[in-house]
Amino acid sequence: MAPQTPSNPDEVLVIRNVTPNIVTLSLPFSPFGGVKFGGRGTLVRLVTGSIAVFSPVPLTPLVHEAIASLGGQIKYIAALNIEHHLNLTAWKDAFPAAEIIAPEGLWEKRQAVAEFKDTAFTHVFRKDDHEPPKISDEFSAEFVVEYVHGHQSKELVFLHTPSKTLIEADLVLNLPATEQYSRTGESAASGLLNRLLKPLASTEMSAFWQKKYVWHVSAMADRKAFGASVRRIAAWEFDRIIPCHGDVIEGNAREVFLTVMERFLTAF
């Protein structure tokens, strides 16, 4: 069985300037017995020069070069949910002044792993808080955040308002992960298991199967809360979605989001 993550990240890493201030770091990731989900981290340079990284990938020499190309000032490290966290400590060690942003439950989860447990979190989103945490003035000037605590993985979704870009982990999936496998020499759609499960994570054919997956799996913890978050996100202005799994969605991103989440827009 192929490993979930590449042993040689820089040999297969795809670095792309989506905009002058947004750089994606895309690479293979194959959980669930080889399903080619792909993985992606995103760097965003703020007007102030500070850089936020979302769902950080392994901190390799090429990733350091990408950071340097944006000025090198990593100030925010965001875990987009309780699953996307394995590289937080390495980034925090490399950039000790950076502030970690995460959903509730992740810090507790990491206490079982010796190398993770001493990594401090700065901003934690909790569903019972009357107000979400204030990250900083510079961050709030460019980002809107929705904590989708009804998602089984406790998603944090960020809207970068200057570029109308939605940055998320597992809320919307967009397989096949063509870009993330483009340097591997293999098709992102190959493999029997991959072909069988791909429809659950695809936006093709009106996202028929992904709609079912979101309703029955992603939102099963609290569909009412999930739907409330979805409706708030649906009111945002965006034309690009950068997911962690699958290709970036350009141009018609909001329409794709509304299609995938259609049932939540009318169910409650």
From TrEMBL:
Listed Pfam families: DUF4336
Signal peptide boundaries: none
Gene3D superfamilies on file: Ribonuclease Z/Hydroxyacylglutathione hydrolase-like
InterPro entries associated with the record: DUF4336, RibonucZ/Hydroxyglut_hydro
Protein's name in the database: Nuclear protein Qri2/Nse4
